[in-house]
């Protein structure tokens, strides 16, 4: 076993870090994170960490670059303070959607972020619902990609009693939707989007039976909410009795909040991998579930050298 367990955090999501500490029965290690007038970031760890087992809770959500640099600087500070081991707990991994070359002279940004974090001193990564699971292969250190599904499924079992159909908003999310449907004993539907001709509006067809059912659209994130809201609307036109949305990461950029408020969804279930702040008050349809317990179990098992795979059952 490594040294004492310590949790530190930057400014990305201190509420989640505090909630994790409450589950573990420990306190946050004081860390100074401030910005100079020219925009440079200053980091200073406020306690001795020599030989300790340190976990940094820092999602790389908006402002993505500031939070990423904060995380890198904390890693470097710990490395220079002779830390025993440092694990980056990044519930939301920014740049995950840039995981391949989409044009001849484009970077693979998700890989570059992996290289950056490892060069800064990261020994292990814990994350939640990577946008593309194969990103784990970008790292040369252990990666634990946890799933928020158990947290969301527990909530759905307690609140939704009607006939349920789980809906994937596109072909790429079918595996995720199928896993939800299997756990809930529900049927599965897929939304097929296509353009018959260039510059034509997308036609959205529903594959599967949704009439008279509570349709729950599941995805790994909601960004601008355009696709999700359009999916909800088409499900209602196909006879769904009620539509809900469930997602792990509430990115909610641009017009997302306005779109969700005006949408046909009765509820939009998200987790606290990304802090919502004032956005939560701006949209009464949002229901936030916490992944603090899930992350606390992972941290405890990693620290005690126990199995993390038990969390995937």
TrEMBL record:
Task: Kindly list the positions annotated as binding Mg(2+).
Answer: 131, 170
UniProt-listed Enzyme Commission number(s) = 2.7.6.1
Q: What is this protein called?
A: Ribose-phosphate pyrophosphokinase
Known role = Involved in the biosynthesis of the central metabolite phospho-alpha-D-ribosyl-1-pyrophosphate (PRPP) via the transfer of pyrophosphoryl group from ATP to 1-hydroxyl of ribose-5-phosphate (Rib-5-P).
| Matches recorded under NCBIfam families | PRK01259.1, ribP_PPkin
What's the catalysed reaction?
D-ribose 5-phosphate + ATP = 5-phospho-alpha-D-ribose 1-diphosphate + AMP + H(+)
The residues that hold D-ribose 5-phosphate are 195, 219, 223-227
Is-annotated flag, keyword Ribosomal protein? no
Q: Which residues form a coiled coil?
A: none
Question: Where is this protein chiefly located?
Answer: cytoplasm
Location in the cell reads: Cytoplasm
Gene Ontology MF term list: ATP binding; kinase activity; magnesium ion binding; ribose phosphate diphosphokinase activity
Native organism is Oleidesulfovibrio alaskensis (strain ATCC BAA-1058 / DSM 17464 / G20) (Desulfovibrio alaskensis)
Q: How does it assemble?
A: Homohexamer.
Q: Give the UniProt record's GO annotations in the biological process aspect.
A: 5-phosphoribose 1-diphosphate biosynthetic process; purine nucleotide biosynthetic process; ribonucleoside monophosphate biosynthetic process
List of catalytic residues: 193
């Amino acid at each position: 076993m490594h040294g004492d367990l310590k949790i530190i955090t930057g400014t990305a999501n201190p509420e989640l870090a505090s909630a994790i500490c409450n589950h573990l029965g420990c306190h946050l290690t004081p860390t100074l994170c401030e910005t100079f007038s020219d925009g440079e970031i200053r980091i200073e760890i406020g306690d001795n960490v020599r030989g300790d087992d340190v976990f940094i809770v820092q999602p790389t959500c908006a402002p993505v670059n500031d939070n990423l640099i904060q995380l890198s600087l904390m890693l470097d500070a710990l490395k220079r303070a002779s830390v025993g081991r440092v694990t980056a707990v990044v519930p939301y991994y920014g740049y995950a959607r840039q995981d391949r070359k989409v044009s001849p002279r484009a970077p693979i940004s998700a890989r570059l972020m992996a290289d950056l974090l490892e060069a800064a001193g990261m020994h292990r990564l814990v994350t939640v619902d990577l946008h593309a699971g194969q990103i784990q292969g970008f790292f040369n250190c252990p990666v634990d990609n946890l799933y928020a599904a158990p947290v969301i499924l527990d909530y759905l079992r307690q609140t939704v009693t009607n006939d349920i159909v789980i809906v994937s908003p596109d072909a790429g999310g079918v595996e995720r939707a199928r896993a939800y449907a299997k756990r809930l004993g529900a049927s599965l539907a897929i939304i097929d989007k296509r353009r018959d001709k260039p510059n034509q509006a997308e036609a959205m067809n529903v594959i599967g039976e949704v009439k008279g059912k509570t349709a729950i659209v599941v995805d790994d994130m909601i960004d601008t909410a355009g696709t999700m809201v359009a999916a909800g609307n088409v499900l209602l036109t196909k006879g769904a009795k009620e539509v809900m949305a469930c997602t792990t990461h509430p990115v909610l950029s641009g017009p997302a909040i306005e779109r969700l408020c005006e949408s046909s969804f009765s509820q939009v279930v998200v987790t606290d991998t990304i802090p919502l702040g004032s956005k939560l008050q701006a949209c009464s349809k949002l229901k936030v579930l916490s992944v603090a317990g899930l992350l606390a179990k992972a941290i405890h098992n990693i620290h005690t050298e126990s199995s993390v795979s038990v969390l995937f059952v």
